[in-house]
């Protein structure tokens, strides 16, 4: 049997978990249910599986360094990390993955995995993958259906048909889009209906053949994007023009609902797509009053509420059935019954031209992170953390000067033609237009307080002369 190639799809923004999840740091890259991110947990649950190749990662180009750092923490080197120039949903990503796998093994088996799911029964998942691999090797397109625990209206459903010879797999009778509550209740009562997990297994050649029949434009544009791709450090960048012209559709609608080769394997493995704050309340460890609490919280006469604080104290009194999330620069308070509508709040932020849906106060970079402490007219104060051995680009600014104060670690600073080492409580000044670089030559994280002053303080006021990360625009 062919090898199994895990394809981790990490292109979503997780807007229903705002304000913690944002487009520049979405939910799959954040720890919600353990010390590791959801993406890391997705990859780790593959450990121990038979015939598993190294994972293929498909992600937004903006997230490449964060994902690379998280993989490095696990000691995992992907087979390839594909960068999408724009989001084109899961059908295009699957077609790209099929091209990549076929270049290694024509009939290799793809295991398509969203990066943001949670599964408690890891062994049950691995057993199902083994069953799915046999079905995929036989030429079927395997879907994994979750045994429903409630009449959920937020998922699509799969209706099973005839049982196959292995006893664990069924033909797919019909796919159902997200139902209303009455229909979902009927599905639950009837049995034989499963939540669509978005996890699929299929041979690379079968996927290409079926997409050629049912969504040929997606297949062609994705093929061209891979054919005209290029290497950038450890990443594979798809051709932007070809990929941008590719139709944007979920693989369910573009292919799985149309093909005659779909089969379903039912799973009861403690699955969640971690799609809302309500899901995190369901999954979390509750106190005697039914509260799930994270961070600095004092809850008095509070029941059945989810409370998360990233830094400051949250105190509650006499409330019930709420979600309260403090992400530092934004606080959300919502009725727990309305958490599926959080995406509407994010849309409102976009309409108002605000930035809180895109970035956190703490912005991650390949060298570390920076976070805003204070900002005013013609000045801004930031905290910079530079990882051991890392460096910022050799750069200059047209509109701002900078004053750096070392508060932890040792900094190697280049200002013009001069290079100096600064220790704790030492500082330097960079005037407007001066070429400069900040490096951490030490073995502990370097913390800098940066005071910017000038007529324009935007992150796009950067001219780079040298950069070891191959960046052209980012900080």
* Number of beta-strand segments: 30
The top-level CATH class of the largest domain is Alpha Beta
Structural class: alpha/beta
Low-confidence stretches: none
What's the pLDDT, averaged over the residues? 94
- Order of strands across the widest beta sheet? 20-21-22-29-24-27
Helix content: 10-25%
CATH fold call of the largest domain:
Spore Coat Polysaccharide Biosynthesis Protein SpsA, Chain A
| Integer-rounded radius of gyration | 24 Å
Counting structural domains, the number is 3
CATH architecture of the largest domain: Alpha-Beta Complex
By CATH, the superfamily of the largest domain comes out as: Spore Coat Polysaccharide Biosynthesis Protein SpsA, Chain A
Approximate strand percentage: 25-35%
Q: Quick one: biggest sheet? A: 6 strands, antiparallel
Figure out the total of helices: 11
Anisotropy-based shape? globular
Layout of secondary structure:
Layout: E1 4-10, H1 38-44, E2 56-60, H2 64-74, E3 80-84, H3 89-104, E4 109-114, E5 118-119, H4 122-137, E6 141-146, E7 157-163, E8 170-176, H5 181-190, E9 193-203, H6 204-214, H7 216-227, E10 230-232, E11 235-237, H8 240-244, H9 251-256, E12 262-267, E13 271-272, H10 277-283, E14 292-294, E15 297-303, E16 306-309, E17 314-320, E18 322-326, E19 331-335, H11 342-351, E20 362-365, E21 368-376, E22 379-386, E23 394-396, E24 400-408, E25 411-415, E26 418-422, E27 427-430, E28 436-439, E29 446-454, E30 463-466
Parallel strand pairs: 1-2, 1-4, 2-3, 3-11, 6-12, 14-16, 15-17, 16-18
Antiparallel strand pairs: 4-9, 5-13, 6-9, 7-8, 7-9, 8-12, 10-11, 18-19, 20-21, 21-22, 22-29, 23-30, 24-27, 24-29, 25-26, 25-28
Helix pairs in contact: 3-6, 3-7, 6-7
């Amino acid at each position: 049997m062919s090898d199994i190639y895990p394809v981790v799809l990490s292109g979503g923004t997780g807007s229903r978990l705002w304000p913690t999840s944002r487009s520049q740091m979405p939910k799959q890259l954040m720890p919600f249910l353990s010390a590791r991110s959801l993406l890391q947990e997705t990859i780790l649950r593959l450990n121990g599986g038979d015939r598993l190749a190294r994972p293929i990662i498909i992600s937004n180009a903006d997230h490449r360094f964060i994902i690379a750092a998280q993989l490095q923490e696990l000691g995992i080197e992907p087979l390839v990390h594909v960068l999408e120039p724009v989001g084109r949903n899961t059908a295009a990503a699957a077609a790209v993955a099929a091209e990549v796998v076929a270049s290694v093994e024509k009939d290799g088996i793809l295991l398509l995995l969203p990066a943001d799911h949670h599964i408690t029964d890891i062994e049950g998942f691995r057993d199902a993958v083994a069953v799915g691999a046999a079905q995929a090797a036989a030429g079927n397109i395997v879907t994994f259906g979750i045994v429903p625990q409630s009449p959920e209206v937020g998922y699509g459903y799969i209706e099973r048909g005839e049982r196959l010879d292995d006893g664990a797999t069924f033909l797919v009778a019909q796919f159902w889009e997200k139902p209303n509550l009455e229909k979902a209740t009927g599905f639950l009562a009837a049995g034989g209906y499963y939540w669509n997990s978005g996890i699929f297994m299929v041979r690379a050649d079968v996927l290409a053949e079926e997409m050629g029949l049912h969504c040929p434009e997606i297949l062609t544009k994705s093929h061209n994007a891979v054919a005209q791709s290029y290497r950038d450090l450890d990443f594979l960048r798809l051709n932007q023009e070809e990929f941008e012209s590719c139709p944007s559709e979920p693989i369910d609608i573009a292919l799985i609902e149309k093909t005659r080769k779909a089969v379903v394997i039912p799973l009861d493995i403690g699955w969640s797509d971690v799609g809302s704050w309500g899901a995190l309340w369901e999954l979390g460890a509750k106190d005697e009053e039914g509260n799930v609490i994270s961070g600095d919280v004092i809850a008095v006469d509070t029941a059945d509420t989810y409370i998360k604080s990233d830094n400051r104290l949250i105190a509650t009194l006499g409330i019930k059935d709420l979600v309260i999330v403090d992400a530092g620069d934004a606080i959300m308070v919502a009725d727990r019954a309305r958490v599926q509508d959080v995406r509407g709040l994010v849309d409102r932020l976009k309409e108002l031209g605000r930035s809180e849906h895109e970035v956190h106060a703490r912005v991650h970079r390949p060298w570390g992170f920076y976070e805003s402490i204070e900002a005013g007219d013609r000045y801004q104060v930031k905290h910079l953390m530079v990882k051991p051995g890392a460096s910022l680009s050799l750069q200059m600014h047209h509109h701002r000067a900078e004053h750096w104060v070392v508060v932890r670690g040792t900094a190697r600073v280049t200002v013009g033609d001069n290079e100096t080492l600064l220790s704790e409580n030492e500082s330097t000044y960079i005037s407007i237009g001066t070429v400069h670089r900040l490096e951490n030559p030490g073995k502990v994280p370097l913390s800098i307080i940066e005071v910017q002053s000038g007529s324009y303080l935007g992150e796009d006021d950067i001219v780079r002369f040298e950069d070891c990360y191959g960046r052209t625009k980012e900080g």
